[in-house]
Amino acid sequence: MTLLPVAPWPVLLVLAVGALAAVWWNPSSRSVPGESRATHWRLTGAVVLLGVAALRPAVAGEQVDTTAANLNVYFVVDTTSSIIAEDYGDGRPRIDGVAADISAIAEALPGARYSVVTFDQEARVRLPLTTDTTALDAAVETLLPESYEVSRGTSVSEANDRLKTLLHQADARTPERGRVVFYLGDGEQTAVDPPAPFDIDKRLINGGAVLGYGTTEGGRMKATRSRFDTTRDYIKDPTTGEDARSVISENTLRTIGDQLGLSYLHREAGDAIGPVVDGIDLERFGTSEQIEKQKVIARRELYWPLLLAVAGIAAWEVGAGVTALVQTRRRRGTRP
Question: In this predicted structure, what is the pLDDT of residue 54?
Answer without folding.
Answer: 87
